[in-house]
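User: For my dataset I need records formatted as: sequence, then structure tokens, nothing else. Please produce one.
Assistant:
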Amino acid sequence: MNNLSLAELMQLFPQSGELVWIGVRPARGEPMITVNKVLADQRLGLIGDRYNGSSGKRQVTLMQWEHLSVLESLMGKAIVPELLRRNLVIKGINLLALKNQQFRIGEVVFQTSGFCHPCSKMEQLLGVGGYNAMRGHGGLTAQVLTGGLLRVGDSLTVLPHSETPCVNNTL
């Protein structure tokens, strides 16, 4: 193990992640709707989400479950996933390690496409300092490469580079 290259090390994960929460945003400014499952489409993103049909690299947003407790500590209050307006909350894996990776959640294959930086809306949703509390904890954006059904409880596994098609990634 000591002679592994950096590229090889970046393919090693101690465990799979788990999808613990799913939310869709029906329209700009509307509250998130929590669901137990959602259909992901290669062209449309998450069916029922406001980005449905949008082309581009921000079809789906992901956040790390463990960051909720960090935000609670920074803000001094309880933080629930729907408040943060991300689509998928994942626990058990470092999402930032998914940079330049393709991964599978349940039936769906994703490609990371960027960081999901906070917007000014976090200040009004979380309170004074909410924007700065979210910096570094906003998660990732991803594109759907292979559609299918996502369910709460599905595992997230990183696909080895040999199993993934070459996709231009600007993350």
